[in-house]
Amino acid sequence: MRKNSVKSTRINEEVKRVMAEIIRSSLKDPRIHPFTSVVDVEVAPDLKTCKAYISILGDDEKALKDTLAGLRSAEGFIRTKLAKEINLRNTPEIRFIMDQSIAYGVNMSRLIDEVNKDLKPVDEETSEE
User: Fold this and answer.
1) First to last CA, the chain
2) Within a domain: residue 112?
3) What's the rounded Cα separation, in Å, for the pair 59 and 111?
């Protein structure tokens, strides 16, 4: 199975959808932040492993570490639920990775807004001349 094949893309999206549902509704661990989302999932071509990119709303470092620890401890439960929901040859071993891209994007947007606020609009510059 090639990396960008239709089959690979469908498997990745289905695993992502089911994993997000499991994290949102089935996990009762208090360490897991309520606004945890699955950003992306990459299942290996042999279906043995998968990388799950996780994002959390907010930038509290303690919440990030606690959520990651909670997800890692619940990996067996998530794999079991995943196996019941999705009929795959192998249920992949999950590796959770924190995805900081959303927080990075929000920070960059804030910085751009600050720079734009300091600049004069183009219309004011031309009317003064």
Assistant:
1) 64
2) no
3) 16
Q: What range defines the domain where residue 34 resides? A: 6-100
Is 80 exceeded by the pLDDT of residue 129?
no
Instruction: Count CB atoms within 10 A of the CB of residue 23.
Output: 23
Does residue 111 belong to any structural domain of this protein?
A: no
Residue 58 DSSP code: S
Residues 6+ away with beta carbon under 8 Å from 22: 78, 81, 82, 85
In angstroms, the Cα distances linking 66 to 31, 56, 63 are 5, 11, 5
pLDDT band at 22 (very low <50, low <70, confident <90, very high): very high
For residue 49, the domain's CATH number is: 3.30.300.20
pLDDT at 1 over 60: no
Residue 1 placed within a domain: no
Residues with Cβ within 8 Å of residue 85, at least 6 apart in sequence: 18, 22
Could you report the per-residue pLDDT of 70-118, keeping only the tens digit for each?
Answer: 999 999 999 999 999 998 888 999 999 998 777 788 888 989 998 888 8
Q: What is the pTM of this model?
A: 0.76
Structural domains of the chain, count = 1
> Domain for residue 59, yes or no?
yes
